Amino acid sequence: MEITEELIDYLQKLGRIRLSEEDRQKTMKDLGSIMGYIDKLNELDTTGVEPLSHVFGRTNVVREDEVTNGDMRDKIIGNAARKSEETILVPRTFD
Amino acid sequence: MKDYEMVIGLEVHCELSTESKIFCGCSTKFGGAPNTHVCEVCSGMPGTLPTLNKRVVEFAVKAGLALNCDITRNNKFDRKNYFYPDLPKAYQISQLYCPICRNGHVDIMTSNGKKSIGIHEIHMEEDAGKLVHDEATGMTCVDFNRCGVPLLEIVSEPDFRSAEEVIAYLTKIKDTMQYLGVSDCKMQEGSMRADVNLSVRPRGQAEFGTRTEMKNIASFKAIERAIEYECERQIDLIEGGGKVVQETRRWDDEKEYTYAMRSKEDAQDYKYFPDPDLMPVVISEEYLENIKANLPEFADEKRERYVSELGLTEYDADIITGNVTLVKVFETSGAKCGNYKDAANWILTDLLKLYKDEGVTPEDKEFDGDKLGTIIKMVNDGKINRKSGKKILTAVFEENVNPEEYADKNGLAQVSDASAIEPAIKKVIESNEKAVSEYLAGNTKNIQFLIGQSMRELRGKADPKTVKDILEKLLSEL
Amino acid sequence: MDSKEILKLTALELGKAIKEKKTTSKEATKAYLDAIASLDGKYNSYITVRAEDALKDAEAIDEKIASGELKGGFAGVPVAVKDNMCTDGILTTCGSKMLGNFIPPYDATAVRKIKEEGMVILGKTNMDEFAMGSTTETSFFGPTVNPWGDNRVPGGSSGGSAASVAARLAPISLGSDTGGSIRQPASFCGITGLKPTYGKVSRYGLVAFGSSLDQIGPMGRDVLDVAYMLNVISGEDPKDQSSADAPKLDLEAIKNFDLNGKTIGLPDQYFAEGMDEDVRNAVMEAVKLFESNGAKVETFPMPIMDYAIPTYYIICCAEACSNLSRYDGIKYGYAPDDVEDLMELYIRSRSEGFGMEVKRRIMLGNFVLSSGYYDAYYNKALQAKALIKKAFDEAFEKYDVVIGPVAPTAALKAGESLSDPLKMYLGDICTVLINIVGVPAISVPCGFTSQNLPVGMQIIGKHFDEQTILGFTYAFQKLTADKAYEQQTAEGI
Fold first, then answer.
1. Mind telling me how many Å the CA of C369 is from chain B's nearest CA?
2. Domain extents for chain B?
């Protein structure tokens, strides 16, 4: 898998990350060698193998529909960099 | 100009009426102060994990069965990843790969008759928070109260060809959810929201045109107007040699037009993958049968029964079954007074007027059907007259009083004892010689005048029919 | 008891001494805090030390022990906690600038349980940023130094938890293991570290890295400390629906474990090219010791191991990129204060708040999940996962445990792998597939290299069969008690 400039741009955009030019060059190289290794997986024959997302086969773990939490606003918004008394503030969002 | 037809598919979001959120124990109540129904889980604190509320699964299965869907036996949740301040985890837990319901349909009635609308799928997911722009600071306030409120997203097939069909379908979905008790579907509170995917094509063409999506339109009327506007806009565009651009547009209900939304971020790549934090949900035959056995009677069945068994007109049955709150009032009051036709009359003429005058819907303001039944019974038994009945109804509506106590306290009970009525009527006969003699001469219409005078003398506290009987008896004795 | 004596005790011995009033929790806590004060400047194993608060906690705990309210074997015993477990009111940084000021409003379940046992939290230990790394060099708070000296890394990502125990700056610690992050630093620092079965310990409050792989586990001086600690922190948690109820370990049965007739499988791939000769020899010596004490040993091929690293990095990076998207400069954590645009807030918070290794994995994760590549990478990895699980299921039909090295080498020199991430990833070859299938595995010190660096042996068991691997471990530590594998490395003693 070749790591192109366009792909790096796209991955930065998806991850909301901006790399310095130096990091960007190094990342292209590193991702290139990592993906080169990861592509080894193509050699593995997985024909007809069902993808396994959950390894244990545990199912139907649920909870009752009960309200167990009260107001803990101050603790929740306490860590925000910008906040008012009741809410967290963010730069203006657009439609 | 060519003849065009519109093609519409709908994505309807219904907030489920659970007590607690889908993945944590916070309340789902509408209208709390900002960020007071929020915990570390639904605000996406590092290290927190979701725990599935079992009632959400139950409600989804109920909805699926009511909308004739196949129920997926092996369910998983997936993460839909995107950045936005109303989504604190930066992913929404939803279902992409295995939605809980598929391949359903509902029948709707329009002026062109009956039509079946396909349901592509229904999946469970969590709601996002609310963003409010603050003019004072120029910033946006983030309120996580709605984060994690359970939603069903009902995705239709692109089967609609008119706004009328869309409205009929939405009404049907709303009724069904309300009858099931799984969602109150209040559009004004955002507990029912519809995204409209619309395209146009020359009639007869098989391929679909390019569609636009209109998100979160807030009322049935607005949806109707938005569809009509957008359809015309697309036709004008094509006729003018332009092309429809696939985009999300917003409907401005005041200015009555749609406009393209500033795209959140180029192409959306949601990077869905199975959520490792939630275990698969397997639905057994037994579970399914149990839910099936306990499904309620739906609007169509009720309407039919009201007409055939209870003797309502189709029109009356239609209005009552169109609102699940009215159904409850109707069935309770009818059972109480033993006369369903009267119950329907009282609801349709008197109770609905009260709602209308106050500008609220039956869902907004609970009304105790049992009390209406009591009022009807009191009127039918001649204990009070209809006018007093209405007065009590208003008092129940406004202050939820006890009808019998209220009648006593306000002296509304009718004088039904002839010995108490006769002296008053005798007095009327004595003081209205002219009317009496005309009556006796054959002008029987004058009886109405005399009844009126008698009622006045009795200060309205007598049953007019009893008054008439006694009056006629006394007159015949003259 | 004087502080040197205190530092020499294992956690269980210390708990017993406190119970027998030979010392107090406060005295023990003070001894450790003093050791930290004098030595951690050198090792940098802690990010946060709770000097005053720990003593206060210890005092309160001493009262509860006196009143009989606290009776557990670890009551009063100090403990170090990796800095990716949320502690109510205590800074929890994950080794990152991003969470450099984050005070959680709640306790992780494992943290709640050690508090309920009556343990005193000494502080939060250093780690690779967001647990991404194998050397504890990617921490924003500077690298941790291996107490064995020679400018070696302590391993990672639970390097601080490993080094603190090895240097006697904590009697026992909690680490977390996503692809080897307990076992490998335990091996590099010469201590015992257990990655329990996935689901054995609640993940609630463990800052997520790879959610299907992460597991909290104990790191200690010997097997009994580790076993007892697992009993303290394990159990089904209603707040973690992937956690499961399983019986507690029977410590007496562990002590009486009989090697006779037990079967050991040795996968060829664990002893193939690329493994350091000293490491291979040390592990083989240990296996021979098991064999001479009645266990049956057999080698078998496990070719799927060749695909473990690609599978692991696809899965963990995919989950990580999703898990780490919540760090956006809005709700908590680092945010530049001169930003007026939402997109800029996202980009600058994340670009300035995350280190390079974290960014690299976020980008990798985004890549393998992005539209067009999902099937070729992420889905393929889930298929490989199914095959890896099958290989283990088959192995465990034949063997009670599977044994191999923990890492291809002993502790690396500082800075050696930082410049080449692929090289660092390849060092995880022995550990990652254990997380992919979720089985338990322990790292036990089993010898030294020619440079006198500790070597760890990995004993892998069946799902929820910690009892057996701890039995093997106990038997081994008893048989080798004279060898000082668990060598004293602290200067303070």
1. 5
2. 4-286, 297-409, 418-476
ipTM of the complex: 0.97
Residue range C102-130, pLDDT digits in tens: 999 999 999 999 999 999 999 999 999 99
Does the beta-carbon distance from B47 to C207 stay under 8 Å?
yes
For residue A83, the chain B residue with the least C-alpha distance is B141
Comparison of pLDDT for C198 and A56, the residue scoring more = C198
Please name which of B220, C48, B77, B143 lies closest in space to residue A90, comparing C-alpha atoms.
B143
C157 is catalytic: yes
Segment B130-160, tens digit of pLDDT: 999 988 888 999 999 999 999 999 999 999 9
A64 to chain B, minimum CA–CA distance in Å? 6
Give pLDDT tens digits for C218-263: 999 999 999 999 999 999 999 999 999 999 999 999 999 999 999 9
For residue B65, what are the CA distances in angstroms to B68, B73, B167, B288?
5, 13, 22, 9
| pLDDT band per the 50, 70, 90 thresholds, residue B265 | very low
Q: Which two tokens stand for residue B34?
A: 């900002």
Four-residue CA torsion sign, C470, C476, C482, C488: negative
Task: Quickly count: other Cβ atoms within 10 Å of residue B137's Cβ.
Answer: 12
Q: How far is CA B281 from CA A54, B287, C438, in A?
A: 12, 12, 20
Active site residue C181: yes
- B29, B32, B34, B37 alpha-carbon torsion, rounded to 10°: -40
Pick the CATH number of B418-476 from 1.10.10.60, 3.40.50.300, 1.10.10.410, 1.10.10.10: 1.10.10.410
Instruction: Identify the band that residue B263 occupies on the pLDDT scale cut at 50, 70 and 90.
Output: low
What is the sign, positive or negative, of the torsion defined by CA atoms of B305, B306, B311, B316?
negative
Task: Give the HSE-up count for residue C94: Cα atoms under 13 Å, Cβ half-sphere.
Answer: 27
- Facing residue for A18 by CB, picked from C347, C362, C380: C347
* pLDDT given at position B242: 92
B91/C86 CB distance under 8 A: no
Relative to beta strand B192-202, strand B212-217 is: antiparallel
Mean of pLDDT values over B79-88: 96
CATH class of C3-259+440-483: alpha beta
Q: Which residues of B163-194 are buried (b: 16+ CB within 10 A; e: fewer)?
A: bebbbbbbbbbbbbbbbbebbbbbbeebbbbb
pTM of the model: 0.89
* From C45, C157, C161, C173, active-site residue: C157
- pLDDT in the model for residue B217: 86
- Do β-strands B139-143 and A88-91 pair in parallel, antiparallel, or remain unpaired? antiparallel
Interface size between A and B, measured as CB pairs under 8 A: 125
- The subunits that touch chain A, with at least 3 C-beta pairs less than 8 Å apart, are B, C
**CA–CA gap between residue C296 and residue C288 (Å, rounded):** 10
Tokens linked to B202: 């020359």
Residue B410 — φ and ψ, nearest 5°?
-100, 10
pLDDT band at C493 (very low <50, low <70, confident <90, very high): low
Question: Between chains, do C325 and B90 touch, taking CB under 8 Å as contact?
Answer: yes
List of chain C residues whose C-beta atoms are within 8 Å of the C-beta of residue A40: 306-307, 310
- Residues from chain C that touch A81, judged by Cβ atoms under 8 A, are 329-330, 335, 337
Output the pLDDT for position B440.
85
Q: What residue type is B148 in one-letter code?
A: G
Does residue C82 carry a catalytic annotation?
Answer: yes
Task: Measure in Å the smallest separation between the Cα of B204 and chain C Cα atoms.
Answer: 35
Would you call C388 an interface residue with chain B, using a CB distance cutoff of 8 Å?
A: no
Token digits of residue A5: 């400039």
Question: DSSP assignment of B223-264, as one string?
Answer: HHHHHHHHHHHHHHHHHTT------EEEEETTTTEEEEPPPS
Judged by a CB distance cut-off of 8 A, whether residue C88 touches chain B is no
Distance in angstroms (rounded) separating the CA atoms of residues B250 and B137: 25
Q: Which token pair is B259?
A: 């406009």
